[in-house]
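User: Please predict the structure of the protein below. I'd like the answer in structure-token form so I can feed it into my own downstream comparison script.

Assistant: Understood. Taking the following sequence of 367 residues as input:
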Amino acid sequence: MKDNTKKSFDIKSIFRGGLGQLTIPIIAIALLVIFNLIRDPSFFSIGFSSNNEGNTVLEGNLISIINSASELAVLAIGMTLVTAACGGQDISVGAAAAIAGSAFVKVLKSGSEIGAGTVIAAFVLACVVAMIFGAFNGTLVAVFKIQPMIATLILYTCGRSIAYWINGGATPTVSSPIITAIGSFIPGIPVPTPVIIVIVMIVLFKLLFRFTSLELLTQSVGINGSAARLNGINTTFIKLLSFIFLGICVAVAGCIGVSRLGLINHETLLLDIEMDAILAVAIGGNNLGGGRFKISGSILGAYIIQMLTITLYAMKVPSTDVKAYKAIVIVILVVIGSPVVKQKFNRFMTQLQMKKNQTAVKEGGKA
């Protein structure tokens, strides 16, 4: 009897606890991996090759997936915080990244040479600019109580025009070994630099959550803002802070995007990435209405979206049809991970376990 009770508790804890939140993204990745291995056993093979600079680097579909999803993974981190604290999403991250990228290039082009000091100064300015625009969005949401998607619609609409003005309507190129290394590979390191940047961002946020109460405060505000306020939490500050942290993520993503291309194109830089960032948060099992969150789930969601994209291209699906197929798969994942489906599944698991317990009791009585 004790064993059965313990087993029932374990099952419930899996689907109601932290692991349950990651169930959908883990299953989605597993299905994509199995599908690709059946379709092409060599799909995930990794090898070494030489790039244009003559450096030995890793190559393969798996490397392409984790490399191409870098900007999305970084944005998903910040989007998760905004979603958790405010119960809404920022749809201006693509436009804000274009602004940050334009500011980044503006500083790089200001001098005759692009050295390490210039790159650092450019990145700092990009962060400051993105944080200012993040604070603007956060003020509309936290102070004026405007719904996040409506508040960020302003910057979504005019952001790329602002990016256009920063460089006078031009699309200047930036040529420098440092910029090339940021967008591709550091000489002597076979792992793509954007992947390393994502790892650094994850570590920084993990340390932030470890040594501060930001994670707990953000979840408290998202779950019940009124109760959090009565307990002495400054809900306005927490919401504003989440947008500022998203601004940092936006700047990092924008600088990566510029470094990949070696130029700033305000019209195409990270175009439509805000939709993928929101989907990454949703696929990661996070509640889009705010509250509890897992950064790891959102990052997995970003890689799921990119793996799905690479898979479709590998299947020779026309580029015009890729978004349609992605939408079908993502809708299925989001519906499966919805609160209604989770509630019914938990109810089914509970009933199933009760029947097993009753059967065990009957068999024990007969014995």
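That's the full token string. Residues 20-40+61-360 form one domain.
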